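INFO batch 0412 | record 1 of 1 | parsing
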Amino acid sequence: MSTTQPPVQVRTQGKSGPSSGGIVKLVVLGVVLLVVLIFVLQNTDKVQFSFLFWDFDLALWVMFVITLVGGVLLGMLGSTLLRRRRRHELRRRANSA
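INFO prediction complete | emitting tokens
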């Protein structure tokens, strides 16, 4: 008698759509963009800004967008620096062990 068994087939479940975490991020991003759009549309007045020895007039929404982009870039820079520091610390610990 032969005792060979047929090969076992393994099924893996593939993701057919975005994960629930991805959907939540998209919804939050959409809400934030909607709030920014509403703010921009309501603040079209020109205002005077003074910074150090510069004086200039800009629409309030332009200054808001400049500040928003600057804040996002600073946040990304800080995140990158922290990630590099952690990675360096982990490598140092791995090499000393």
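INFO post-check: Strands lie at 46-51, 54-59.
INFO record closed
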